[in-house]
Amino acid sequence: MERTGALALVGGTIYASPADEPIRDGVVLIRDGKITAAGKRSELRVPPDAEALDCSGCTITAGFWNSHVHFFERKWADAGSIPAPELAHQLKEMLTRYGFTSVFDLSSPWENTRKLRERIESGEVPGPRIRSTGEGLVSPGALPSDQVTGMMGVMKTPLPEVADPVQAVAAAKKLLDDGVDGIKLFVKAGPSHAAFSAETIRAVAEEAHRSGKPVFVHPTTGDDVLNAVANGADIIAHTTPHSGPRDQAVSSELRERRTALTPTLTLWKYFMRHDRLSSQENITYIAIEQLRSVRFFSEPTSARWVTIRRKSTR
C-alpha cells in the first residue's frame, strides 16, 4: 500500500543530481507518496502535519535509471487490461522497490509497452518513467523458435527482420514514426547468425539521429562492438564476456567515441546459473574486466545521450 499524508526526511545529505553539489543537512518533503520539495533544512519549512524522519548521517539520492530492461515477459501481455493493483505490484517487484524511477526498455512489443506507459503516466498505477525502443531489429532467421521463447517465458513478438540498409531504415523509420524513444539493433543475435553490415548500422544510426533518438546495439563479440561504435551506435547494451578478455582496440574505440556501455553484470551470472561455480565466476570476472578496461571518462558517460535527447521533440 502506498503511503498517504506528509513525510519529511530531515538531516540527510541529498544528491538530487549527478551534476549538482550535494545538499548537506537537507530536507525532502513527500506528500501522498510524491516528492514535493527538497532543499536545505535552514531554507525549507517542514509542514506541521508531516511525520519527520531523522536521516542524520544518511545519504538520499535521486531515483536510479535502469537502462536495460524488457517488458516482453508473458506477465506484461495485454498490459491495457491487467487489473491496476496487480500491475502496480509487478512494477514494484521488478523495478521501483529497488529505487528505479526511470527505465529504458530495449525491445518489447511497442503497442503493448505504450499502453503500460500510458497507464503509469495517467496516474492510474505507480511506476517508473518508461522509454522504449519498441521491437528490436534482427537479421533474417535470427528469431528463436516459439518453443524456445515459450520456455523463456517471453511473449510471441515478431521482430522486424531486415537484410540490408534499405529494409533496416524502413523498419527504423516506421518505429520512429510510431513514437519510440530509440532504436535497438541486435547486431548479431548469436554466434551462428550473421552480423549486420557496417552499412546497415550506419544507415539506421543516421535515420535515428535525424529524429534525435539514440541507437542501442546488442553485440555478441568484440568485433560486433567495434562495428557498432565505428558506425554510429550510441550505447552498447551489454558486455561480451563469452568472447573472452576485451581487446584494447575495442576499449580505446569506446573511450575515443564517448560511446556509453551498459554492463549488465548480474545478467551473466543469471544466465550461467546452471553451470559450475567456477564457470560462473570466470564469466563474471571477464565481464568486470571488460568494464574496467573502458574506464570512466573525464566527462559523464551520459554526455552524448544528453545531447541527443535535447534534440528530441518528446
Count of separate DSSP helical elements? 10
Tell me how many strands there are: 12
Number of self-contained structural domains: 2
Helix-strand topology string:
EEEEEEHEHEHHEHEHEHEHHH
Tell me about the biggest sheet? Answer: 5 strands, mixed
Principal-axis shape equals globular
Structural class: alpha/beta
Radius of gyration: 21 Å
Mean pLDDT: 88
Low-confidence stretches: 297-314
Instruction: Return the CATH topology of the largest domain.
Output: TIM Barrel
Question: Would you state the CATH class of the largest domain?
Answer: Alpha Beta
**CATH superfamily membership of the largest domain:** Metal-dependent hydrolases
Descriptors:
19% strand; single chain; disordered C terminus; five-stranded mixed sheet; 10 helices; TIM Barrel; alpha/beta; 2 domains; Urease, subunit C, domain 1; 314 residues; four-stranded parallel sheet; 12 strands
Summarize the structure.
The protein has helices at 84-94, 110-121, 146-152, 165-177, 198-210, 222-230, 248-256, 265-271, 277-294, 303-311, and strands at residues 6-15, 23-31, 34-40, 51-54, 59-61, 64-69, 100-105, 129-132, 183-186, 215-218, 235-236, 260-261. With 314 residues, the chain is of the alpha/beta class.
